[in-house]
Amino acid sequence: MTSGVDVSNLSDGGRNPAAAGLSVVVPVLNEAAGLAVLHERLCALATTLRQRYGLACEVVYVDDGSSDATLAIARDLPATALDVQVVSLSRNFGKEAALMAGLDHARRGAVLFMDGDGQHAPELVERLVGHWIDDGYDVVFTAKAHRSNESATRRLGVKIFYSLINWGARQRIPEDAGDFRLLSPRAAAALRQLPERNRFFKGLSNWIGFRQIRIDYEPAPRAHGVTSFNIGRLLGLSIEGLTSFTVAPLRVASLLGLLLAFAAFLFGLSILWETVVGGKSVPGYPSLVVGLMTIGGVQLIMIGVMGEYIGKILSEIKARPIYFVAEHSVRTADGDAAKAPAARTAAE
Ligand code: UDP
Ligand code: MG
Fold this sequence. Notes:
binds uridine-5'-diphosphate, Spore Coat Polysaccharide Biosynthesis Protein SpsA, Chain A, alpha/beta, 15% strand, single chain, binds magnesium ion
């Protein structure tokens, strides 16, 4: 047994990368209103890519427990310009799990992830594919060109999040990078090798390394409906991302403890000075209460942070599957409904 993974057999030395084909993974949660339009745009894209690079495409719609007609619509989408897979999860498992399900079911070599709400323009995909096929990049990721349309608090939150997650990291996660990205066959294979259940997709696809390139773009407004990520869910996702990816919060907690101990030491010295040299008797009550409350607060924060990590350990040990597939269909462009290949489930 080796301690690393060799995925070099998936790189063809740049001879004809397009031969591997491309799987487009689209997680969808209640996107019934815009799915047909998105599919049309993807069909147009597939035709262009086939003409330009001879690239065969498939799309994998992962229905993440939608409560509207998303699944029914996805089942009937035409598989003319590209193969269509529909993977329906047994309930809402969250976008990260849906992305994983798409990656597991993708049958082509390269994998592209994009949202199903029209915010990630299929037209931009041509550029991403160009960087993979023409320039030989393995991870082509998009990032928000600017955040001027976001509130100051949100921007501050993003800054804090990235400085924490990148603290002391050898491979920095680029700020503002999104889930809209393309992975070459070997990068996709590398991502499949990561065994953890608590996944922070953006971080992991950065962590695997290979040749990466950033593309700045401006996300389009949502074609319909509203985002499912409100501030509470974003906060949850940030804590999830941080604790599953880095021990920075633990280090911050230790540093805070150290800082507090140092401040207390200085405070003690000053009291000693006032009593011995100044001859004053220092009133005890306020300083005692403030000291107690500070120490109590810091200890509670530390316990909370540690609890987050213990929770992560528990969920990794339980080793539950990341998702369950309730229904799976594959339709190929030449008309026949191919037998659905057994999914590489997380349980394997
Ligand atoms: N999504 C999903 N499962 C979820 C939440 C979202 O599959 O639990 C999908 C959603 O249908 C969309 C994409 O993930 O295609 C991005 O979601 P959304 O637009 O709500 O997020 P935002 O663009 O605001 O980050
Ligand atoms: Mg969106």
